[in-house]
Amino acid sequence: MTTAAQYDREDNRVSDNAAGSTFHEVDDLHRAVPAIEFRDVHLAFDDRVVLNSLNFKVMKGETKIILGGSGGGKSTIIKLVLGLLKPDAGQVLVDGVDVTNFTEVEMMRVRKKIGMVFQEGALFDSLSVYDNVAYRLHEQNVAEDEVEREVRRMLRFVNLEDAIEKMPAELSGGMRRRVGIARALIGDPKIVLFDEPTAGLDPPTARTICELAMKLRDLEDVSSIFVTHEMNNLDYLCSEYAVVNEEGQVVFEKEGERLCLINSKVLMMREGNIIFSGTDETLKKAPDPYIKRFLRGH
Amino acid sequence: MNIVARSLLELQETTILATRALVGVVKRPRYIPETIAQMDAIGVGSLTIIVLTGFFTGGVLTVQTFPTLKSYGAQDQTGYLVAVSLIRELGPVLCALMVTGRVGSAISAELGSMVVSQQIDAMRALGTDPTRKLVAPRLLALLISLPLLTVIADMVGIGGGWVTATALYNIPSSMFVSSVRDGMTTDDLIGGIVKPLCFALIIGAVACRQGLATEGGTVGVGRSTTRAVVLASILVIIADYFLAKALQVILGTT
């Protein structure tokens, strides 16, 4: 993917103003292409319809929170993006490229620009934290000193640099998820998929995971799908944003009069169908009895 | 889906997996450290049980055949009979069955656990083909280790037969050794190497396929492990019959 900065380096003959204008247009065009797009996607396992004519887009830098009860097809969406499953009909586009009929080898190339955070972390039991996080770079034969630098940077991002030598069995549930996030973020993917990353965690740890997702969204311009059925995740992701304060520290502020978050959208699934798509504010006003019951929790 | 269709589908999937893994052995990326680690686990790790099995099998062959041979006055052929039985049949088959029990079950359980804990999905999500990373090194390690283990089992088995013959039945050592040396042919040795190669392919392909096809959580891991061991053991014995006949035809010993 060519960024505006890279264009800048390649063509230094253009005057500063002209260059600025051209590069903004390129950047705008690039941002207009959705990071992920589902077009009329249909999937069934035998007679059971899992996804029914699904249409949605995740724009660049946007977090799409997919809500819904268990068995509603939420995690299936993530597997379709990664090509771990193939739809029966419809198209799945990643960065504007139709990957629906990609072979496993072609899909491997697509997967390299996507980070995935699994429900239980899915760490490789036989590898240390260092080797788990370094996995992608080791597979790409990156030099070991660069691997170590990147691994430490990612572990610092998730506040787990002290656990670098530990084995997955020595980690708590929350630590495993955070290592999973560090592993997903190595190589700086511009798309990150979260599959119920806070399920079964205590509230402070769940909050930490959500803060990591907010940092990615607001500071790293990462597009993401965040699958969850926990309402506090929705509240954090839709009402707070990460900024760097004057001391250079990352802090989280609530949206309000100064700023209204537009880079977090909600999609609600029920039995393979999208029953709501929009902002958290409109979700809370939705008349659908299932949504009302889901939001109330009883 | 009926049982015939299911069996054919399983055969197709196992064959595809084995073919892709074998292609993965020769293509990049090559996972040499993983292959060496697997050879250590499969080959070196199985050495003790193979040595014990081989030694006592050779011994019991002498115990069972010596009285019969003696009644025909052919006790000088004891070494030959022990060696031929071991190299042609018992060595490869017993070795394969022991490796199926020890290694086939471990491979299936390990891959099955990785499936249910989403580690295989994670591997694919990180851009790695599990067939190349996990299946190819195990298959290659089996293809190298099983023939070597079989040769060791054969040698130790003949040693077990020799110990029993000389210690229990007072057969002169030179008589036992010369009957082994004189009776053996190159065809026997070829058969003794070809069979383990085929068995290694069967054990590796079945164990990996069953492990990767695990469904239904930890209970599923147990189910797929049992299925891998049972299926591989049966297939080894069936394949042994056809290989024995095919080798007779090919080597012209019918």
Using only C-alpha atoms, the radius of gyration of chain A works out to 20 Å
Taking the sheet with the most strands of chain B, its summary is:
none
Give the tally of β-strands of chain B: 0
Count, helices of chain A: 11
Nearest-integer average pLDDT of chain B: 91
Enumerate the spans of chain B where pLDDT stays under 50 for 5 or more consecutive residues.
none
Explain how this protein is built.
The complex is a heterodimer of chains A (about 300) and B (about 250). Chain A has about 300 residues and is α/β, with parallel strands linked by helices. Chain A has helices at about 5-10, 15-30, 75-80, 105-110, 130-140, 145-155, 175-185, 205-220, 230-240, 280-285, 290-295; strands spanning about 35-45, 50-60, 65-70, 90-95, 95-100, 115, 190-195, 225, 240-245, 250-255, 265-270, 275-280. Chain A has a domain at about 40-115 and about 190-295: P-loop containing nucleotide triphosphate hydrolases (Rossmann fold, 3-Layer(aba) Sandwich). Helix content of chain A is about 40%, strand content about 25%. Chain A has a six-stranded mixed β-sheet, with helices on both faces. A four-stranded antiparallel β-sheet of chain A has the order 2-1-4-5, with helices on one face. In chain A, helix 5 packs parallel to helix 7 and helix 6 crosses helix 7. Chain A is globular and about 55 Å long. Residues about 1-20 of chain A have low confidence and may be disordered. The N and C termini of chain B lie far apart (about 40 Å). The longest helix of chain B has about 40 residues, at about 30-70. Chain B is mostly helical. The model of chain B has no long low-confidence stretch (mean pLDDT about 90). Chain B contains eight helices and no strands. Chain B has one domain (about 5-250). In chain B, helix 1 (about 5-25) crosses helix 5 (about 130-170). Chain B is elongated and about 70 Å long. The interface of A and B includes residues 82, 84, 108, 135 and 183 of A.
